[in-house]
Design goal:
Blueprint (H helix, E strand, L loop, with lengths): L1 E2 L1 H15 L17 H17 L3 E2 L2 H4 E8 L4 E6 L5 E2 L1 H11 L9 E2 L3
Antiparallel strand pairs: 1-6, 2-5, 3-4
């Protein structure tokens, strides 16, 4: 499975935030598809769930996401706030990021996940 550019950037930033606590992991750092602030949060949560599903990050949903309002049919969530400090990279994610950071690969657009 592949990560797109935004998801790859998110994973690297989660890594950086875990390794250097002064580095915040925030939604404003990304060029998301959605323009509406509410939909941006839902898109961001959707991408985080993908990273978690792939086994690259870990978080407790009840701690990382505050929910309310209407559910997005597109992103299948009703997340209104994301607590970035509750989201952490796990060993598989660390291995992937460190492999990317220290490789001579010219492919900066995607990571390929091979299990």
């Amino acid at each position: 499975m592949e990560l797109n550019t935004i998801e790859s950037e998110m994973l690297i930033d989660i890594y950086d935030a875990d390794m250097m606590p002064e580095m915040p992991f925030e939604i404003g750092n990304y060029r998301l598809i959605e323009e509406d602030p509410e939909k941006k949060i839902q898109e961001f949560a959707y991408r985080l769930k993908k990273l978690k599903m792939l086994g690259l990050v870990k978080y407790e949903e009840r701690d990382a996401f505050i929910k309310g309002g209407s559910r997005s049919a597109k992103y299948n969530n009703n997340v209104t706030t994301i607590c970035g400090d509750k989201i952490h990279i796990n060993s598989k994610g660390i291995k992937l990021v460190e492999g990317y950071k220290y490789s001579n690969s010219e492919n900066t657009e995607k990571y390929i996940i091979n299990d």
